[in-house]
Amino acid sequence: MKRSESNPKISNKGRVIVISGPSGVGKSTICNIILKKRNDLWFSISTTSRVQRKGEQQNREYIFISKSSFLEQIKQNRFLEYAEVHGNLYGTPREPLEKVLEGGKNVLLDIDVQGAQKIMTLFSAGIFIFLIPPKFGDLKERLQKRNTDNTDEISKRLIQAQKEMEYMKDYKYIIQNIKIADTVRSILEILKNELDRNAEL
Ligand code: 5GP
To answer: Which residue puts its alpha carbon closest to atom 15 of ligand 1?
Structure first.
């Protein structure tokens, strides 16, 4: 059985694909389209302590739990990685992801730059993609239009976005998300080269 080079306990029959980028850049929309186009991908649903937004469903966008339960799960080593983002806790549940990789499926993660750094140390063969907005001003507009966060929350997310851009250099692929359709096409091309070509070798 093949094991992850950097962590012998984790199977690397499947590959991990990480998508990061500032809040409002369009990660969730893009991940949802990619998931419909490739049935070899499984989306890792994160656990979070942030409040559920209107339109979100338990166990669909996230597993929503209280901060105290989150802290308990950290103690129990239930996360492969976790981080505090915009004042809330987010983590990748360890067990389902490991099972899926063991079964040979590839895993798609929409996580922040801190989480991605951890995944980079665990999965050297991971595919790391960073999405950037066409213009920084666009982020503010998108966050306002999305209408899910108040003004305070939007300011926090914009400050955080500036910081996140500093991590961009650690990603193998950087895509400027000008048009969703073009970004999706670029990601599908990356996946074709990285996953399908390797499978043929
Ligand atoms: P939002 O609250 O807008 O859904 O997500 C905020 C940020 O948390 C996004 O940048 C998203 O990529 C990140 N995030 C979501 N799940 C996880 C996770 O499991 N781990 C980490 N490190 N970040 C996450």
So the answer is: 111
pLDDT in tens, 4-30: 555 656 667 899 999 999 888 899 999
Cα–Cα nearest to 188, from 127, 134, 111, 133: 127
Q: Which of 61, 81, 165 is nearest to 123 (CA)?
A: 81
Closest among 148, 102, 108 to 129, alpha carbons compared: 108
CB–CB of 6/125 below 8 Å?
A: no
CA distance 120 to 137: 30
Q: Where along the chain do its domains lie?
A: 2-194
Q: Are strands 127-132 and 16-20 parallel, antiparallel or unpaired?
A: parallel
In 3D space, the residue among 126, 200, 135 whose CA is nearest the CA of residue 161 turns out to be: 135
Tell me which amino acid residue 171 is.
Y
Nearest C-alpha neighbor of 104 from the set 198, 14, 192: 14
Distance CA 19, CA 111 (A): 7
88-120 residue pLDDT tens = 999 999 999 999 999 999 999 999 999 999 999
Reply yes or no on domain 2-194 having CATH 3.40.50.300.
yes
pTM: 0.90
Ligand 1 pocket, Cβ-based, cut-off 6 angstroms: 23, 27, 46, 50, 81, 83, 85, 90-92, 110-112, 114-115
CB-based contacts of 97: which residues, under 8 Å, 6+ apart?
A: 16, 44, 80, 107
